[in-house]
């Protein structure tokens, strides 16, 4: 029996319960709501999205079922976090050699500088775990789980400014308008939970730079894919999803009858002009109806035991923080949400980096480590891929004024670091190598499209075969590039 066939035949306890729950719920629904006979149930099952995946089956046997993508918006400095460079400390204040820069492009913020003084890291590094990974003192909790991480030091990108660079990671293209990676996976793989969005988004603002550049909803947009696959943003507060609750005076039975009538009208319109977006709209109404019960339950972390809040840190009790969102990400993973995207803003340290980056690390270090520990002890890490990283790195030279205790760094797309864990990734690995200046890659480069191809591979998708035809052209997330990084696969 080949690996893919063996995967298709496998049925674990969680799969059994999730696949039977809709049938039990539908039977109960039929007994209490008029009009929910077998035909209505069949229609609701179809609208629920069980058969909405574009791929009838995965191209290869998947190792991951879901993704938690912890996107660190602004560009975390690899030099302070994952890629120690003692030479920069020794050469502190000296000029960046022309032989290293080689005339490479700079942003408009430093292109006019007459001097490019090298700045070593304010933070020290130590080897951690049996793998001996070099980890920054700014991330002590992540250091404790170094053997769970695959650190990639040789990421590189083409964009040099935030908007294009973030769009490139999230959609595979620097210009806006393409589907986000979560939308691609929703379209290709479909839902694992009929009562929550396949692609869920959580935002938090960092303390290192509270007024950092904003994020745009197009980053979790569906682009030219059906709107069913766009990301759904969950907010902190009384209404996690806007316009979800019924208006005063509307009870559940009235709501159900109204949706049935709207669905009938929409179905008649669809049969008239065959517009697939009409079916998407019907499905979205049904999803919103089911979410009225599932969302409040999922978003309520107040019943989590004290031990969980201690694990994730004191900020985890504050709604809307990165720590609280990490708890929500674990809860969504338990409920089999396919793609969970956390955005944490504030990593753009052009000045005052030691203080600003220290605050950002304090935001994310303990909650990120706690999330990975929590997933592992619940048996979810093996089939959940966790990704942590930003859109580019930071320069080895200082932007603006510099002193021993204070400096800033500009954007640097030539080399930077991210890490991955779980979901078929080889643990305890440091992959790729940069030069002594952390300016250029000298071994095992990983392009953004390589990262995207590898993520899809872990979910069972061959990125070269996963194509959507739009306006006469065949599109894919990785455009015309991308290679799976086999060396980091378990």
- The average pLDDT is 89
Radius of gyration equals 24 Å
Helicity level: 25-40%
* SS field, number of helical segments: 15
Question: In terms of structural class, how would the helical and strand content be classed?
Answer: alpha/beta
Low-confidence stretches: 21-51
Largest sheet: 9 strands, mixed
The strand count comes to 17
Write the layout of secondary structure elements.
Elements: H1 3-9, H2 13-32, H3 38-47, E1 66-72, H4 78-81, H5 86-90, H6 98-101, E2 125-128, E3 133-136, H7 140-144, E4 149-156, H8 162-171, H9 181-189, E5 199-205, E6 232-234, H10 252-273, H11 276-299, H12 306-312, H13 322-334, E7 339-345, H14 353-377, E8 384-389, E9 393-394, E10 411-412, E11 416-421, E12 429-431, E13 433-434, E14 441-443, E15 446-447, H15 448-458, E16 468-470, E17 473-475
Commentary on this structure:
Strands 1, 4, 5, 6, 7, 8, 11, 12 and 15 form a nine-stranded mixed beta sheet that branches. It is built from 15 helices and 17 strands. It is of the alpha/beta class and 490 residues long.
In short:
It contains 15 helices and 17 strands.
């Amino acid at each position: 029996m080949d690996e893919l066939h063996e995967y298709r035949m496998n049925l674990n306890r969680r799969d059994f319960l999730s696949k039977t729950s809709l049938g039990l719920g539908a039977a109960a629904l039929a007994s209490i709501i008029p009009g929910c006979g077998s035909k209505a149930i069949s229609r609701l099952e179809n609208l629920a999205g069980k058969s909405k995946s574009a791929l009838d089956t995965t191209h290869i046997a998947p190792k991951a079922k879901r993704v938690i993508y912890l996107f660190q918006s602004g560009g975390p400095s690899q030099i302070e976090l994952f890629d120690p460079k003692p030479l920069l400390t020794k050469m502190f204040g000296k000029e960046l050699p022309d032989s290293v820069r080689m005339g490479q492009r700079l942003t408009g913020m430093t292109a006019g500088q007459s001097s490019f003084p090298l700045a070593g890291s304010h933070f020290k590094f130590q080897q951690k775990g049996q793998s001996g990974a070099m980890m920054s003192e700014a991330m002590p909790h992540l250091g404790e789980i170094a053997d769970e991480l695959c650190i990639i030091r040789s990421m590189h990108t083409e964009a040099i400014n935030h908007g294009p660079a973030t769009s490139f990671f999230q959609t595979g293209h620097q210009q806006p308008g393409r589907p986000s990676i979560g939308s691609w996976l929703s379209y290709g793989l479909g839902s694992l939970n009929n009562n929550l969005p396949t692609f869920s988004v959580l935002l938090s603002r960092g303390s290192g730079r509270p007024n950092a550049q904003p994020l745009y909803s197009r980053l979790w947009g569906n682009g030219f894919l059906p709107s069913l696959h766009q990301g759904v943003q969950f907010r902190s507060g009384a209404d996690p999803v806007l316009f979800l609750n019924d208006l005063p005076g509307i009870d559940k039975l009235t709501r159900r009858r109204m949706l049935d009538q709207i669905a009938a009208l929409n179905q008649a319109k669809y049969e008239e002009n065959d517009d697939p977006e009409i079916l998407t709209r019907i499905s979205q109404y049904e999803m919103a109806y089911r979410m009225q019960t599932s969302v409040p339950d999922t978003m309520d972390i107040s019943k989590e035991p004290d031990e969980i809040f201690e694990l994730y840190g004191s900020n985890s009790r504050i709604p809307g923080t990165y720590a609280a969102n990490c708890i929500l990400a674990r809860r969504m993973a338990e409920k089999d949400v396919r793609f969970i995207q956390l955005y944490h803003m504030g990593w753009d340290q052009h000045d005052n980096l030691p203080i600003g980056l220290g605050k950002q690390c304090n935001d994310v270090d303990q909650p990120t480590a706690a999330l990975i520990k929590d997933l592992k002890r619940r048996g979810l890490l093996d089939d959940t891929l966790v990704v942590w990283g930003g859109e580019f790195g930071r320069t080895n030279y200082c932007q603006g004024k510099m002193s021993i205790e204070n400096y800033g760094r500009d954007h640097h797309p030539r080399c930077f670091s991210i890490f991955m864990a779980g979901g078929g990734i080889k643990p305890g690995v440091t992959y790729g190598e940069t030069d002594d200046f952390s300016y250029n890659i000298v071994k095992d480069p990983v392009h953004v499209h390589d990262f995207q191809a590898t993520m899809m591979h872990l979910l069972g998708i061959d990125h070269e075969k996963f194509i959507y035809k739009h306006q006469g052209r065949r599109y894919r997330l990785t455009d015309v590039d991308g290679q799976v990084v086999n060396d980091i696969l378990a």
